[in-house]
Amino acid sequence: MRASLIQIAVDEGESVASRRTRVASLVREQAGSDLVVLPELWTTGAFAYEEFGPQAEPLDGPTYEVMAAAARDAGVWLHAGSIPERDPDGPLYNTALVFSPTGDLAAAYRKIHRFGFDKGEAVLMGAGREPVTVRLPGTTLGVATCYDLRFPELFRRLVDAGAETLVIPAGWPERRRAHWTLLARARAVENQAFVLACGTAGSHAGVPQAGHSIVVDPWGEVLAEAGAGEEVLTVDFDPAKVAATREQFPALKDRVLGLEPPRPHGR
What we know:
The protein has 267 residues and is α/β, with parallel strands linked by helices. The chain is built from 7 helices and 15 strands. It has helices at 16-28, 49-55, 62-74, 121-124, 152-160, 177-191, 240-248, and strands at residues 2-7, 9-10, 35-37, 77-86, 92-99, 105-110, 132-136, 139-143, 165-169, 194-198, 201-204, 207-208, 214-216, 222-225, 231-236. The chain has a 6-stranded mixed sheet with strand order 6-5-4-3-1-15. The protein has a 6-stranded mixed sheet with strand order 7-8-9-10-13-14, covered by helices on one side. It has a 3-stranded mixed sheet with strand order 2-11-12, with no helix packed on it. Helix 1 runs parallel beside helix 3.
């Protein structure tokens, strides 16, 4: 399977409409790939909180239409990153969209873990509730977004649902880039799955982005890593390696579920 991660640079001087058009062209250029992945909130920038409301769109809004057409034209599975979704009956959501090669919406995932510690996304966006997997020919994707990467419980749920390839679009800041690489490798090792983590370049509302999109195999080996700037990272990987790894080193079978919380001892 060939995957292309498009590490988009978010230039604050570029309009959202222009960026949609430019990114759609980049997607079409990946016609030889099976799967294309875009970053989180690439239309606005993940830290451009003041733009979430003005740029929010319905699930089937402008980004949906442009990305569906790009996926269809390129004949690829497209994880189109995420958008600020305006639910007519509820709050805003940070929502990821996955399209099939026919341009049909295969899945939508509302980000469960919102970043900000009672500020920013954490108060401006509603929390998703349901983990999402998507079946592709040859592998099952487990979908997560940025800050989700810090919460291993979600990835266990995805693996239990059949995930073999974990896809994580992000708008990860440069100041915590070491965590980005460490956590991507940890999620791969502990779940014995491929990790495709696609970040952004540039700067979001004055916050420099980490870039360094990364593809990790089920043993935690880095197959490919981008630099800091805008880049298309393309890698070939064999989804069958997941089953082989889990058979060769069957650690997932030794999971102990339902542990009781520790009891205090002494006075």
